[in-house]
């Protein structure tokens, strides 16, 4: 894990990662495991911008993440990347109303119309308070920026984050975030899960999931830290083993 040397791209932090309940993954890069569904949220600090990765399961959870990010950096979150359209990752997004929001191409459609109704129903089915679900869904605005292929964000001071449309797999709209560095960090969304078996719901594309993990591995390489949507951070060997298990599970040829 990283030491105490912080590059010029990282702003002075007002509290430590640990004091704020976050886990440092690399200089200026951290994540938080949220209560309830053990969903991961990420944070990437640049000299001029702050990127959040996923927003939690409700407006209240999104607001807590926004407050913690400001406590860590002294600045607001300027960019928000949504890894896929499941309630525990997107319903906190309205709390970041002044951020530029990014998602895989097509995510805007998935979060509109009937998709919003299905999102609300799924949240309540998994135990979110119906009033909290109604509040978040009513405030939800689809991402302004659609990522097709790759999109590089310049957060200032040499800090960049690469957004990559690596799906479909877990859903039709899987977005990964690579933060180059030593080590590099890849936020995987629910393409990778560590605390449970990968979940293949009705919106999954199982036959294409192993190929999505192949793209994820090419993106990060052998030495990156991979951050699952749920669970502890893992390495490339874990991702590769999960890829092989999914291929066997769904009858996908190598």
From TrEMBL:
Signal peptide: none annotated. It comes from the Bacteria. It holds the Pfam family Lactamase_B. InterPro entries: Metallo-B-lactamas, NDM-1-like, RibonucZ/Hydroxyglut_hydro. Residues 38-230 form the Metallo-beta-lactamase domain. PANTHER family: ACYL-COENZYME A THIOESTERASE MBLAC2, METALLO-BETA-LACTAMASE DOMAIN-CONTAINING. This is MBL fold metallo-hydrolase. It comes from Streptomyces labedae.
């Amino acid at each position: 894990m990283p030491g105490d040397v912080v590059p010029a791209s990282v702003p002075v932090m007002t509290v430590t990662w640990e004091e704020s309940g976050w886990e440092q993954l690399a200089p200026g890069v951290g994540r938080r495991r949220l209560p309830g569904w053990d969903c991961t949220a990420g944070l990437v600090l640049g000299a001029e911008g702050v990127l959040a990765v996923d927003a939690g399961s409700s407006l209240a959870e999104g607001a807590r993440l926004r407050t913690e990010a400001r406590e860590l950096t002294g600045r607001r979150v300027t960019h928000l990347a949504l890894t896929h359209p499941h309630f525990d990752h997107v319903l906190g997004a309205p709390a970041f109303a002044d951020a530029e929001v990014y998602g895989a191409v097509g995510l805007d459609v998935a979060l509109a119309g009937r998709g919003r109704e299905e999102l609300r129903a799924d949240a309540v089915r998994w135990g979110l308070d119906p009033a909290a679900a109604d509040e978040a869904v009513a405030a939800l605005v689809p991402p302004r920026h659609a990522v097709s292929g790759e999109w590089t964000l310049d957060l200032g001071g040499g800090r960049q984050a690469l957004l990559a449309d690596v799906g479909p797999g877990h859903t039709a709209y899987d977005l990964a975030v690579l933060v180059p560095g030593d080590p590099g960090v890849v936020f995987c969304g629910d393409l990778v899960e560590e605390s449970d078996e990968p979940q293949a719901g009705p919106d999954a594309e199982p036959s294409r999931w192993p190929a999505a993990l192949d793209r994820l591995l090419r993106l990060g390489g052998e030495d990156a830290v991979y951050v699952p949507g749920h669970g502890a951070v893992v390495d490339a060997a874990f991702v590769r083993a999960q890829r092989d298990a999914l291929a066997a599970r769904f009858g996908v040829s190598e």
